[in-house]
Amino acid sequence: MLIAGLIAACGLAATACKAPEEPLRVGVLAWPPYDLAYLALEEDLLDPEDFRLVGFQTPSELVRSFRYGLVDVMFITSHFAVSTLNEVGDTRIIYFIDVSLGGDALLARPGVDAEDLKGARIGVEVAPLGMYTLVRALDELGLERDEVEIVNIDTAGQFNAWSDREIDAVVTYEPTRSQLLDQGAIELFNSKSIPYEILDVVVVNERTIDAHRTALVKLVRGLDRAISMYRSDPAATIRTMARRQAISAEHFSLAMAGVEVFDLTANLDMMTGDTRKLLDALEKQCRIMTEAGMLVSAPDLTPMIESSIVEQAARQ
């Protein structure tokens, strides 16, 4: 009896002393729809004991941290997800956050038109999203890459490079886009011209799905509830989210007008219904990136879309 009691006591002590599970590390960038994750935390739609949001200044930094296991989840564009798939074979998209319909753009100085861009210094982060947007912008404007001078400037440095007149034009996205338009920049191209070619997604690897499935379901449900809150009272939620970006609510509202946000129902339809539209969009991205030298070869995209998290979230 004494031995049995000691064993039971030790078991209880071990349970009591078990270290709590570390929160899921979610890497995010300064892109207005990603602030829905912060909104979900602030409004108790996500438990801060389950999630830690980690801010990054550039997509390249975020992808590097994901590759080395410093974050478990990425909020990133599909171009980076596809590029990562070639390096981290078990990369999976578990949720589609939004599609850019104007939020990504090529801006130039006043009085500059497409013809004037020949020989111009165009600032761009030389990474999958920046280069993809530049390639598509030049295509639309009838220009070749060798007709412009590409200046590698990461997202965080673009506003200062513009102010210091180091560049004549810039490929950028919100909120920098709105800030530069306020400085007098003119827009020569934006992502409204290339619908479904710039998608924002939630990316994980298979190990994270296996180890943190319950937390990922909570994350998806929290995002969905934040979207519902945004849609039911956009003015109030925009004021809350704009404070994080240090921009006016008006600018934040304009930035959100340049995207279509996807809720859980939309994700379920896209990922479990006719997935051809998504695969076509991703395959087109791969084709353009391969032709432009951003990818050595197009990866197999079929296993990349992982619908089980969305399906489980929808059942709860």
CATH architecture name of the largest domain: 3-Layer(aba) Sandwich
Distance between the termini: 45 Å
Ranges where pLDDT stays below 50 over 5 or more residues in a row are 1-18
- Could you state the order of secondary-structure elements as H and E? HEHEHEHEEEHEHEHEEHHHEHHH
Question: Could you explain the architecture of this structure?
Answer:
The chain is an alpha/beta fold and 316 residues long. It folds into 2 domains: 22-100 and 197-315, 3-Layer(aba) Sandwich (D-Maltodextrin-Binding Protein, domain 2), CATH 3.40.190; 104-193, Periplasmic binding protein-like II (D-Maltodextrin-Binding Protein, domain 2, 3-Layer(aba) Sandwich). Helices cover 48% and strands 18% of the residues. It contains 13 helices and 11 strands. The protein has helices spanning 2-17, 35-42, 59-67, 78-87, 128-141, 158-163, 176-182, 206-232, 234-245, 249-257, 264-272, 276-291, 308-315; strands at residues 24-28, 51-55, 73-77, 91-100, 104-108, 121-124, 149-152, 169-173, 186-190, 199-205, 259-261. The strands form 2 sheets. The protein has a 6-stranded mixed beta sheet, with helices on both faces. Strands 7-6-8-5-9 form a 5-stranded mixed beta sheet, with helices on both faces. Helix 2 (35-42) crosses helix 9, helix 8 crosses helix 13 (308-315) and helix 9 (234-245) crosses helix 10 (249-257). It is globular. It starts with a helix and ends with a helix. 45% of the residues are buried.
